[in-house]
Amino acid sequence: MTDPKESALRVRPGRAATEPPQELLARVAKRRRSLSHQQYVDGILKGQRTILAQAITLIESSRAADRELAERILEDCLPHSGNSIRVGITGVPGAGKSSLIEVLGTSLIRDHGQKVAVLAIDPSSQLSGGSILGDKTRMKSLATSDLAFVRPSPSRGSLGGVAQHTREAMLLCEAAGYQNIIVETVGVGQSETAVYDMVDFFLLIMLTGAGDELQGMKRGVMELAEVVVINKADGANRAAAERARIEAQTALHYFPVSLSGWTPRALTCSAQTGMGISELWNCVLEHTVVTKANGWFGQARRNQTRKWMHEIIQQGLMQQFESHPAIRKRLEAIEQDVLEGRTTSFRAARTLLDIYAGSKH
Ligand SMILES: Nc1nc2c(ncn2[C@@H]2O[C@H](COP(=O)(O)OP(=O)(O)OP(=O)(O)O)[C@@H](O)[C@H]2O)c(=O)[nH]1
Ligand SMILES: [Mg+2]
């Protein structure tokens, strides 16, 4: 069933091809702003996907007016958020993250009648201009299901900014009644830790023979995982996948016992045949039961919110610092002094901080 408002807002291909992007963006922004703060909140709480998508676009906007409106929407949605299971999925490019989410999400919708939101954090999309096509073609049935909401990574901004937008998007999805939030990130940089810090359950997907370094074993990513799953355990790869599972299970034993009361596990699965996917979801549910019973679930979420606050402060301070006229005037020359050895980085940093603090009085 297509939302009539959704199709009204969809950009027609013929038009998009000839229209300059700025004008197109301005036109979309104008339409978007025609909704009041209350209309956004009501639409989200009623679970209207078009409104939810538009509110997330506001969150991602760099315009001050959009930002202010987005914050008011978030505040009103906050009391309705939190009622979900947040799962983070990482793994090397091509590990099968999107395919697994497609199978898992479809089963949650079909067998349990639940709603599923999929958000992506893709640091590489800053270079490639977004992964919309890839995500939507690999999650075909989710992309067309009424009970699913698939949102690719914003293609602009630093990892910190993208992570903040994703956290906020997650809260709006929860307010819109999505009981399952899945955050996909490609495991090639810092984005795994950003995702780990926003979810209840962190899943690392591995492949046989793809190299430990690349798969995050040596970068400590494995240590964060509640479950490590060896995907593509199908056809001729089944035996090798089982061997890799045993190896991963052994490696997991060497990590310190988690305070969550949960013992990490290694599983095999196949997004192609569906093997192991329901066992995987049972693990997620079991983890939720265990950590809710011992208080870890709520405690971890509270700690996350405190950490988010500090991150936002840091980003905000950095922005204020870098855009401050007195700093902009002196920064380049002082950087040059450091580069040419005329001063130390400590003294230079102190000088700039003093300039900033002095100009604030
Ligand atoms: N044989 C087999 N192929 C799979 C399985 N899961 C995924 N694939 C294939 O692996 C390729 C990559 O799958 P994706 O789901 O796009 O992987 P991804 O981890 O989301 O990739 P990126 O988003 O690009 O990082 C596709 O060609 C899939 O069809 C599986 O369980 N078995
Ligand atoms: Mg993917």
Strand numbers in spatial order across the main sheet: 3-2-4-1-5-6-7
* Coarse morphology: globular
- Give me the CATH architecture of the largest domain, please: 3-Layer(aba) Sandwich
The pLDDT mean sits at 86
Number of domains: 3
- Note the quaternary state here: single chain
CATH topological fold name of the largest domain: Rossmann fold
Q: What is the CATH superfamily classification of the largest domain? A: P-loop containing nucleotide triphosphate hydrolases
Euclidean distance between termini CA atoms:
58 Å
Instruction: Let me know the number of strands.
Output: 7
Rg, rounded, reads: 22 Å
List the helices and strands in order: HHHHHHEHEHHHEHEHEHEHEHHHH
Assigned CATH class of the largest domain: Alpha Beta
Number of helices: 18
Spans of at least 5 consecutive residues whose pLDDT stays below 50 are 1-17, 129-133
* Category by helix and strand content: alpha/beta
Bound molecules: guanosine-5'-triphosphate, magnesium ion
Sheet-strand content, in percent, reads: 5-15%
Residues in helices, as a percent range: 55-70%
Biggest β-sheet: count, sense, barrel? 7 strands, parallel
Provide key terms for this protein:
Rossmann fold; 361 residues; 7-stranded parallel sheet; binds magnesium ion; 18 helices; 7 strands; binds guanosine-5'-triphosphate; Helix Hairpins; disordered N terminus; alpha/beta
Description:
The protein is of the alpha/beta class. The protein has helices spanning 4-9, 13-18, 21-33, 37-45, 49-60, 64-77, 97-112, 125-128, 132-138, 140-144, 159-175, 191-196, 221-224, 238-253, 277-293, 296-323, 325-339, 345-360, and strands spanning 85-91, 116-121, 148-151, 180-186, 201-206, 227-230, 265-268. It has 3 domains: 4-77, no CATH class; 82-295, Rossmann fold (3-Layer(aba) Sandwich); 304-360, Helix Hairpins, CATH 1.10.287. It has 18 helices and 7 strands. Strands 3-2-4-1-5-6-7 form a 7-stranded parallel β-sheet, with helices on both faces. It is globular. The chain starts with a helix and ends with a helix. Magnesium ion is lined by residues 97-98, 138, 184.
